[in-house]
Amino acid sequence: CSREQRALIQAILKAYERHQIPHDVAKKLLHDQYSVEENFLLLTEMATNQVQVLVEFTKNIPGFLSLDHEDQIALLKGSAVEAMFLRSAQVFSSKTPAGHTEVLEDRIRKSGISEEFIIPMFNFYKSIGGLHMNPEEQALLTAITILTPDRPYVKDQSKLCTLHHPHEPQYFARLLGRLTELRSLNHYHTEIISSWRVSDHKFTPLLCEIWDVQ
Ligand SMILES: CC1(C)[C@H]2CC[C@]1(C)[C@H](OC(=O)c1ccc(O)cc1)C2
Hints:
Blueprint: H1 3-18, H2 23-31, H3 36-59, H4 69-95, H5 98-109, H6 115-129, H7 135-147, H8 157-164, H9 171-198, H10 205-210
Helix pairs in contact: 1-7, 3-4, 4-6, 4-7, 4-9, 6-9
The structure holds the ligand CC1(C)[C@H]2CC[C@]1(C)[C@H](OC(=O)c1ccc(O)cc1)C2.
Residues 43-44, 46-47, 50, 84-85, 88, 108, 189, 203, 207 line the site of ligand T73.
């Protein structure tokens, strides 16, 4: 990578690491009781928080704020679900201490989401975990997901991957392959949201705004 590319990657990494999910949400995982209602409320808080973290991260991606404001909103709305699933997959596969992951998985499974959506969701988490991405790759993949939801991916990000995975020339292609799988989760998410509405659960204003519900 050239000097300015390294600087860009460092800026994106710094933004990514600055906006982590607060530990109080992770702590709640272990303490509140386990009813479906409780689990749903916890996931609501988690999703709301993830969208807030996503907005903060995106605002710190160099150049994003100089985009046309409507485009900024369109990019955020177009990529929020994918970025949230990607973030959760990364949280699942690395950050949270071991015990939390099982508890979080159990609470997601008992939160009113039907099994048909749970299966692809956890398959995705496993496939992301299996990539053992380092923080730069996680930050870059999230930035790519947000910035180019529908345009062909720029090639220079691939240089960083070959740097860290010299033994796997096809590593970057595998990363992008995960983004295709990630895209399919959009569809499941729409179903999850609508099926939850059947049992008339309340969403937060931020989630209603970003997903045009209610
Ligand atoms: C881990 C996940 C990505 C997976 C299960 C929880 C998540 C944070 C997400 O929840 C919502 O989208 C959601 C939407 C609305 C709501 O009130 C609660 C959760 C789906």
